[in-house]
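Quick one, tokens below. Sequence please?
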């Protein structure tokens, strides 16, 4: 396992859809992330894949962002809840609103326990793809999911501190 390389590739369908979206002035709508166990082993994903080798979970995208240092990277995240498990994740797929796999990922092996195993945890999946025309890709985020990154938390706290400073300034001005 130490020699394994992990990566994400656009599928042929994904490349075609993104290219066509650019020409037609439309966008590819990404909605779901799938997780699979690779059929029990690692394998090297290929561009001609239309499905994971063995899908064990599918869920809505919980959050998305662009990478600060790589503007062509789209980062989609999802969470497998603690109540679901009993499998190992070795592969992931990014699915559009028409059910097509746009990208496939070979991911580090991660066991997802279930309560019957004596442990329970949420498993957060982070899917990164690189596209040259980011504006032609739309991600649909599940509005019922709450997903807060450390970066989001820092931004919120910074905004609260700025508001607190403004309130102190206003209070001082009113007192004078």
């Amino acid at each position: 396992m130490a020699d394994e390389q992990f990566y994400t590739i656009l599928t042929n369908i994904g490349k075609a859809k993104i290219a066509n979206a650019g020409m037609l002035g439309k966008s590819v709508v990404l909605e779901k992330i799938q997780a699979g166990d690779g059929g029990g082993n690692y394998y090297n994903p290929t561009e001609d894949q239309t499905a994971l080798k063995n899908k064990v979970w599918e869920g809505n995208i919980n959050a998305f962002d662009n990478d600060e240092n790589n503007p062509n990277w789209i980062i989609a995240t999802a969470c497998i809840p603690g109540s679901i498990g009993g499998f190992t994740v070795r592969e992931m797929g990014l699915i559009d609103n028409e059910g097509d796999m746009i990208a496939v990922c070979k991911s580090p092996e991660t066991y997802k326990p279930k309560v019957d195993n004596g442990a329970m945890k949420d498993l957060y999946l982070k899917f990164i793809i690189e596209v040259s025309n980011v504006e032609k890709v739309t991600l649909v985020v599940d509005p019922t999911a709450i997903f807060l990154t450390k970066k989001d938390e820092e931004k919120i706290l910074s905004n609260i501190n700025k508001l607190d400073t403004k309130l102190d300034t206003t209070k001082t001005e009113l007192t004078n």
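The helical segments are 12-24, 150-175. The first strand starts at residue 7 and ends at 10.
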